[in-house]
Structures are given as structure tokens and as C-alpha cells.
Amino acid sequence: xxxDLLVRNARWSAHKTAEEPGYFPRLAxxxxxDYFWIGCSDSRVPANVVAGLDPGEVFVHRNVANVxxxxxxxxxxxxxxxxxxxxxxxxIVCGHYxxxxxxxxVEDLSHGLADHWLEPIRRLARAYAxxxxxxxxxxxxxxxxxxxxxxxxxxRVAETPILQRAWQSGVGIRVHGLIYxxxxxxxxxxxxxxxxxxxxxxxxx
Length: 205
Hints:
Layout: H1 2-19, H2 23-29, E1 35-40, H3 47-51, E2 58-63, H4 73-85, E3 90-96, H5 100-106, H6 113-117, H7 119-127, H8 129-133, H9 137-158, H10 161-168, E4 174-180, E5 187-189, H11 196-204
Parallel strand pairs: 1-2, 1-3, 3-4
Antiparallel strand pairs: 4-5
Helix pairs in contact: 7-9
């Protein structure tokens, strides 16, 4: 199996070099992606592939069910590097329909350490119990919860000191929420974008 992977890599490298001789030397000098993508670890949702982007065009952090924990130093370190070192101005929180992490969060089963990680999704399920109950069937409820998890993730990213500091300095970063459909391969905008004026307008109210 590993040998197959190495063969595929060699074939891909040779193809890219023949197609664009300066491709790898150019990538090796520096990375300058336009997007920071916070997504799910699910193998069916690789950021580059679903967004149609090449290596070097998107900086990626992934975890189970794209949950934003305020104490997740891995995510926060990646976010800080994206904003301050790479100077990325478009941040995307992307979930997906049919998410196994969302399903696990609402199951009455033990999932070990994942149960601790998925606690924010269970809190969302309790907070939006009335809205979720109006969905047709368990799959629709889980998909709605996946959307709510993305929207909450956008809000939590926007509340980090990293983003607050950047906005106070006049940096025009925007945080977007997208959801990916496994059944049709399409990304959908959840219309929950937060930009530099959002918190200023709230403070003025």
C-alpha cells in the first residue's frame, strides 16, 4: 500500500514538472495562500480538491467535525500564523453534510475521547432543540446541526483575541461559513460572514 502511494507521488511530481518546469522551485521559495481553511478531518473533504485550488493557495487546519475550541492551541497557532505571518485575509470555516462527528455528537453511544471533543456540538443541539425538531428525519436534523456548527465556528473564530487584535489594527479580514455536500460535491455559503465592521457596529448599539 505504501509503495502504491510513493508511485502515485512520483507520477504526480513528474507530470507537474513536465506541465510547468518551474512549479516546485517556485513553491519552495515561499507560500502565499489567499485562504485559511478550517475544516473537518473527513477524508472525503480535502480543502484543495473541493475548492479547486492548487498547493500553495490554501493554508489548512482540520479536526474532527471542524469544531472551534477556544482552548485548541493547535488551531489558534495556525490561525495566528495565517493572519500575522501569511497575511491571509479570507478565513473559511467549512463543515459538510453527512458529518460523522456531528452524528456521533448526538448518538447515545460512547465514542471515547471524541465525546469530550464533540461537547460543543451537543450544546448546540440542546440550544436549538426546537429548530432541529422541525426537520424531517434524523439525517435532516444532523445536516441542520452541521450548519449550526459552522455558523457557531465562524462566531468563535471572530471572537478570538487574534481576530480582535487584527481588526483593531485596521486589517480587513473576513470569516466565512461554508458547507459541503458529499452527494453533489458543491460548496454552499451559509451567509454568516463576519468582517471588521461587525463588532464595531454591535458596540455602537
